[in-house]
Specification:
By secondary structure, the chain is an all-alpha fold. The chain folds into 2 domains: about 100 residues, RNA polymerase sigma factor, region 2, helix turn helix motif (Rna Polymerase Sigma Factor, Chain: A); about 110 residues, Arc Repressor Mutant, subunit A (Orthogonal Bundle), CATH 1.10.10.10. The chain is about 65% helix and about 0% strand. Helix 1 packs across helix 2. The protein starts with 5 loop residues before the first helix and ends with a helix.
Length: about 210
């Protein structure tokens, strides 16, 4: 028996099925967290985005256009919630990702070390773990509008048309932002390694190698 589609589950939720929304939430909570974490660079903010996004879906289900696909609508809400949190975060001080945590004896432990995706693949070699952390640090330096389009395209595999729908921008803007994002990622990576001989990672290749960022 085929599993119900997202659109069928949302329709069932609107009709009063008490279990339909729970299935939808289980289906997307993990991917929403991955998206929000990559965009906000904060596990706490990502959790807030997931909660607020699902709450919005729950309360606004009647506003969903049944002629649309559910997933782009879901990520439109998530992207808006992530932007709201980023703006609010800039208005108050926050502990930097590189800040030391724990006692003096626990040298080298940073907040960044504790932000590994809960859905990540099994740990590989130390070199691979260092490379993933390095790529994350480069991603953090991208402007918000470039990072979100890069995340949607390379990590979540949305086609350009749906990215335009999610972000509420023209298709041409998506393409130009993605081109700029890839270019800036490469420049930041080269600047970060300071001329060290090291293969420059491509975001899509990194995503495929580790499963998740």
């Amino acid at each position: 028996m085929n599993a119900p589609t997202d659109e069928e589950l949302l329709a069932s939720h609107r009709e009063g099925d008490p279990g339909a929304f729970g299935v939808l939430a289980s289906r997307y909570s993990r991917e929403l967290y991955q998206f929000a974490y990559r965009v906000t660079n904060s596990s706490a903010a990502a959790e807030d985005v997931v909660q607020e996004t699902l709450l919005r879906v729950h309360t606004a289900a009647a506003q969903f256009d049944p002629n649309r696909r559910f997933k782009p609508w879901l990520f439109t809400i998530a992207a808006n919630k992530a932007r709201d949190l980023i703006r609010s975060r800039r208005r108050r001080p926050e502990v930097p990702l590189d800040a030391q945590v724990g006692s003096d004896e626990e040298e080298g432990q940073r907040f960044l070390d504790f932000l590994a995706d809960s859905a990540a693949a099994p740990a590989g070699s130390l070199e691979e773990q260092e490379e993933r952390a390095f790529v994350r640090s480069v991603m953090e330096r991208l402007p918000d509008h470039l990072r979100e389009v890069l995340v949607l395209s390379y990590y979540h595999r949305f086609p350009y048309k749906e990215i335009a729908e999610i972000l509420g921008v023209p298709l041409g803007t998506v393409k130009s932002r993605l081109h700029a994002a890839v270019g800036q990622f490469g420049q930041s990576y080269r600047a970060a390694i300071g001329g060290t001989v090291r293969e420059e990672p491509h975001p899509r290749r990194e995503s495929a190698r580790e499963g998740t960022l």
